[in-house]
């Protein structure tokens, strides 16, 4: 069963929102386009000739990967992705291979929350990010036995992730 898709408890400023798993390939594609647009703007990806080029990795094609979307009046407002650990590994292992290996050696069941993007024209403060994380977290909890959800983030966002979302640091900083 899809979670948090009715939008009934996701009212913001008196308007209905839908927050939940992407329902169609088109929603997944639009989410990847939003991530690509935001990542290029932030300098995480090289500028390309196509501003609408989606950001997709091999992890997005895995059967267990779930993309979550927030829609406002039918328009994509934000997205977040959950990648479950598999023989392919996790996206953040390119930066934190030793740290992830140590968690696995301790018998931890891992997933990564990644590809977070919010449409800058539809931002509603941190509440939209919190809604996306809540939807993803509920899905992860139902996918037991995950013990650890991992994220990579900008150092300037550390306080929000620790205080607002309950994450703890476990790797060093590679860049801002």
Describe the protein.
This protein has 176 residues and is of the alpha+beta class. The chain has 4 helices and 5 strands; from the N terminus they run E-H-E-E-H-E-H-E-H. Strands 1-2-3-4-5 form a 5-stranded mixed beta sheet, sandwiched between helices. Helix 3 links the parallel strand 4 and strand 5. The N and C termini lie far apart (38 Å). 29% of the residues are buried. The model is unreliable at 1-14 (pLDDT under 50).
Detail the topology: elements first, then pairings.
Elements: E1 17-21, H1 25-42, E2 66-72, E3 75-84, H2 93-105, E4 110-118, H3 126-142, E5 148-150, H4 158-164
Parallel strand pairs: 4-5
Antiparallel strand pairs: 1-2, 2-3, 3-4
Short description:
This protein is α+β, with helices and mostly antiparallel strands. It has 4 helices and 5 strands.
Low-pLDDT stretches are 1-14
Q: Summarize the helix and strand pattern as letters.
A: EHEEHEHEH
Shape: globular
Range of helix content: 25-40%
Terminal CA distance: 38 Å
The count of helical stretches stands at 4
The number of strands is 5
Main beta sheet strand tally, sense and closure: 5 strands, mixed
Spatial order of the strands forming the largest sheet: 1-2-3-4-5
Give me the secondary-structure category. Answer: alpha+beta
Beta-sheet strand percentage?
15-25%
Mean pLDDT, all residues: 84
Tell me the radius of gyration: 16 Å
């Amino acid at each position: 069963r899809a979670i948090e898709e009715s939008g009934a408890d996701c009212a913001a400023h008196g308007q209905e929102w839908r927050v939940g798993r992407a329902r169609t390939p088109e929603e997944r594609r639009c989410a990847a386009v939003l991530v690509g647009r935001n990542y290029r703007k932030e300098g995480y990806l090289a500028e390309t000739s196509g501003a609408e080029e989606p950001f997709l990795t091999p992890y997005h094609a895995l059967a267990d990967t779930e993309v979550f979307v927030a829609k406002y009046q039918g328009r994509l407002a934000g997205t977040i992705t959950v990648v479950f650990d598999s023989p392919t590994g996790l996206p953040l292992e390119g930066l934190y291979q030793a740290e992830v290996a140590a968690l696995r050696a301790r018998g931890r069941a891992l997933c990564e929350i990644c590809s977070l993007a919010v449409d800058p024209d539809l931002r509603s403060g941190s509440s939209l990010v919190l809604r996306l994380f809540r939807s993803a977290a509920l899905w992860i909890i139902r996918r037991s036995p995950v013990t650890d959800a991992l994220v990579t983030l900008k150092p300037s966002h550390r306080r929000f992730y620790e205080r607002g979302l309950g994450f703890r640091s476990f790797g060093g900083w590679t860049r801002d």
